[in-house]
Design brief:
The protein is an alpha/beta fold. It has a domain of about 350 residues: TIM Barrel (Alpha-Beta Barrel), CATH 3.20.20. About 40% of the residues lie in helices and about 10% in strands. The chain has an 8-stranded parallel sheet with strand order 1-10-9-8-7-6-5-2. Helix 25 links the parallel strand 19 and strand 20. Helix 1 packs antiparallel against helix 2, helix 17 packs antiparallel against helix 18 and helix 26 crosses helix 27. The N and C termini lie far apart (about 80 Å). About 50% of the residues are buried. The mean pLDDT is about 90.
């Protein structure tokens, strides 16, 4: 038997985002359900066929989704919150999308980050659930691949431990009981797969790389013994990723036939464990040696040596070569990037190229001489990029090292008093997070301008026209602090990357963020530095149109780095500080132009948090330093805001305090106010706005709902420091629903002010 190749999951969105466009056409009523399903099937099968042609031996099935794989798992078990009025049995497509997107009457289920990635999953609600297997999706996916393509697929299933740990609606002491509720469902899935003659199933348990307790690990062992009994002939590949496994010896002794380990993001710990503690002779090791999360070409010489070292510890026939995680987190193919500089393009590897690297390494174990040229080429390409001028500018590092003092000039209480006098804002000031709806016309004109089909003057006039229009709308609605709307920006990271040194951009390098929302992460390939002001022109123009304060809007250094594909030849913290120093100059430029409120958004701060608790404090300290490096040089009277997205904020509450922002806004509405508990348990003394309605859903909330979302935090937070704002930016919403929702929000603020006998007169 020879070494085999495998894949853990393939990008869903398509080379040109065909998946996204099909979804949105269906939602808008342009495509009937039967046509939608047929076209989705065609995409799904094309992905399987591509992997087959790449020579992958173990091809994943059931990794495809119409929205989110965690939501798929929940509906497979009939887990639908009562508010969606599901009558039992298999969940309809309509109900599936209502859970994901909400309805006029029912809020969508909560969304949060998938471990420490920028992918968002939908959080299953397990309150008083009675799970049952209403549709064996892995079996259906397996049958489809066999019948349509003759592919003996490897069904992928989110394992019972991780599924429950990723869910909500139970207390900590109920964890084992809830897992036991789902165990018969998983047993039935595996039994039916076994009966079908399926050879391998991939059971994803990424939670085994987090800091789980020894007690939970014992429950893992109990569960997998029960699963094995239900399908004695089925081979289970227990798959972990994103870090080293926490309880290595317990994991490798589970009653499964294969163990998948990440040898890229494990910090060397998985390899150390295999070397020092051994690996069972009767199990297969699925070695994740190709990076599933970054886009740089692998140094195949180094990877070959890693694989050779593994084969010195285990037999070749017991080894599987694969990516470190699902390829969901990278774009589809480099081949479409005709405009990239050749030096950079040659150094990139997207999903398709990563599959090539997997097969190269697999084949090299049997035919090393014939693959010699490929290994030398990868080494040469990486070396040339590392020696390029863009990576050898030392003055950036020197400048960063020169900045030692990152404290504001005065403590918060003194600053806030000065800001209150300067800004003259009312009790419970209202504002938005930054962006306003970007219409098809805006996107069309921006594309024409980028192509040179529209001159600079005409484009600028159009942007200023939109800014003026929305300044007037905000004043009419009655908002207290305004924004210019960000009509000139394609993306909150891409926009800044295009104006800083050290960044490069793809044309089709899209990845899924949530649902049909795709982002195109910049590539940080060189040293980062400031060129010239990036946001001053639009912000100053907006401020000239109104007497209300207008916020300057920036994306913070941690988010820019976490939402980019970052060079690997230097520590990530160095790159983050380079970005922070560049943004510091932009903050100073805004302040120098009399902009008195500057928002530095950090929606991705939490997602960079290491999975291992013992590594988290260092990351948080570095993140806080970078934020303060960006913001600390301003005068006391200048108010610094920041914004954060869906996260387990209780894990980073001290870091939030340490940022020392004058005002922080946090997304909370999808979690139905549960995140407020973090502030009930830990005092927060700076200004804060907890998002009072969900912008990811098209529904406009009722005023009673909005008032309720404001009243609860006022019970635990200082009302004189509380701000009222939506959950997030409004870029993806329509104009009418945006105006209506913001009008309801402002009216809710007025009613609460009236209740507290405080007027909003300025």
């Amino acid at each position: 038997m020879t070494v085999r190749s495998s894949n853990l999951g393939y990008p869903r969105i398509g080379e040109k985002r065909e998946w996204k466009r099909l979804l949105e056409r269906f939602w808008s009523g342009q495509v009937e359900e039967d046509v939608f399903q047929e076209q989705m099937k065609a995409l799904r099968l094309s992905y399987l066929k591509k992997q087959q042609l790449k020579g992958i031996n173990l091809i994943p099935v059931n990794d495809f989704t119409l929205y989110d794989h965690v939501l798929d798992t929940a509906v497979m078990f009939g887990i639908v919150p009562d508010r969606f009025e599901h009558k039992g049995g298999e969940v309809s497509l309509q109900t599936y999308f209502e859970m994901a997107r909400g309805t006029e009457e029912s809020s969508a289920i909560e969304m949060t980050k998938w471990y420490n990635t920028n992918y968002h999953y939908l959080v299953p609600e397990l309150e008083a659930c009675s799970p049952s297997l209403v549709h064996n999706r892995p079996l259906s996916s397996y049958r489809e691949a066999v019948q349509e393509l003759g592919i003996e697929g490897k069904p992928v299933i989110l394992g019972p431990i991780s599924f429950v740990l990723l869910s909500k609606g139970y207390r900590e002491h109920q964890l084992y009981d809830v897992i036991d509720q789902f165990l018969p469902c998983y047993q039935q899935i595996l039994h039916e797969l076994d009966k079908e003659g399926v050879k391998w199933v991939q059971m994803d348990e990424p939670s085994l790389t987090t800091s789980i307790s020894k007690d939970v690990q014992r429950k893992v062992t109990e569960v997998y013994h029960a699963l094995k009994k239900s399908a004695p002939n089925l081979k289970i590949l227990l798959q972990t990723y994103f870090e080293s496994v926490t309880h290595y010896e317990d994991v490798i002794n589970l009653p499964v036939q294969g163990i998948g380990l990440d040898f890229v993001h494990d910090r060397g710990e998985n390899f150390k464990a295999v070397t020092e503690k051994g690996f069972p002779k009767d199990k297969l090791l699925a070695a994740g040696v190709i990076d599933g999360r970054n886009i740089w070409r692998a140094n195949l010489k180094e990877k070959r040596n890693l694989v050779k070292n593994l084969t010195s510890l285990i037999k070749k026939e017991k080894l599987i070569i694969q990516p470190s995680s699902s390829l969901l987190h990278v774009p589809v193919t480099v081949n479409s990037e005709a405009a990239l500089p050749s030096l950079l393009k040659n150094a990139l590897s997207f999903a398709d190229q990563k599959l090539d690297e997997v097969t190269f390494l697999t084949n090299a174990l049997h035919h090393e001489e014939t693959m010699k040229k490929v290994f030398e080429e990868s080494d040469d390409v990486i070396q040339k990029l590392n020696e390029s001028p863009e990576r050898r500018k030392e003055k950036v590092t020197i400048n960063v090292d020169d900045v030692n003092n990152v404290k504001r000039k005065a403590a918060f209480n003194r600053r806030y008093e000065l800001q209150k006098n300067k800004l003259d804002l009312p009790f419970l000031p209202t504002t938005t997070i930054g962006s306003f709806p970007q219409t098809k016309e805006i996107r069309k004109l921006r594309l024409e301008w980028r192509k040179g089909e529209l001159d600079e003057k005409s484009y600028r006039q159009y942007i200023e026209k939109e800014i003026k229009k929305w300044i007037e709308i905000q004043e009419e609605i009655g908002l207290d602090v305004l924004v210019h709307g960000e009509f000139e920006r394609t993306d909150m990271v891409e926009y800044f990357g295009e104006k800083l040194e050290g960044f490069q951009f793809t044309k089709f390098g899209w990845v899924q963020s949530y649902g049909s929302r795709c982002v195109k992460p910049p590539i940080i390939y060189g040293n980062v530095s400031f060129r010239k002001p990036m946001t001053v022109k639009e912000t100053v123009y907006a401020q000239s149109l109104t007497n209300h304060p207008v916020k300057g809007m920036l994306t913070g250094p941690i988010t820019i780095v976490n939402w980019s594909f970052v060079r690997e030849d230097r520590p990530k913290v160095d790159i983050c500080n380079q970005v922070a120093l560049a943004l510091r100059k932009e903050v100073e430029a805004l302040e120098g132009n009399q902009i008195r409120i500057i928002q530095v958004d950090e929606p991705a701060l939490r997602e960079g948090l290491p999975l291992k608790k013992e590594l988290q404090q260092r990351y948080l300290d570095e993140a806080v330093y970078a934020f303060k490096l960006t913001t600390s040089s301003v005068a006391n009277e200048t108010q610094i805001h920041t914004h954060m997205c869906y996260s387990e904020f209780e894990e980073i509450i001290q870091a939030i305090k340490d940022l020392d922002a004058d005002v922080i806004s946090i997304e909370t509405s999808r979690s139905h106010g549960e995140l407020i508990k973090a502030f009930e348990d830990s005092t927060y003394d700076n200004g804060i706005g907890l998002g009072v309605y969900d912008i990811h859903s098209p529904r406009v909330p009722h005023i009673e709902e909005m008032i309720g979302n404001i009243e609860r935090p006022l019970q635990v937070l200082k009302s004189n420091l509380f701000w009222i704002n939506p959950d997030c930016g409004l870029k993806t919403r329509g104009q009418a629903e945006t105006i209506e929702a913001l009008s309801v929000m402002v009216e809710a603020a007025k009613q609460i002010r009236k209740k507290h006998h405080i007027t909003a007169n300025k």
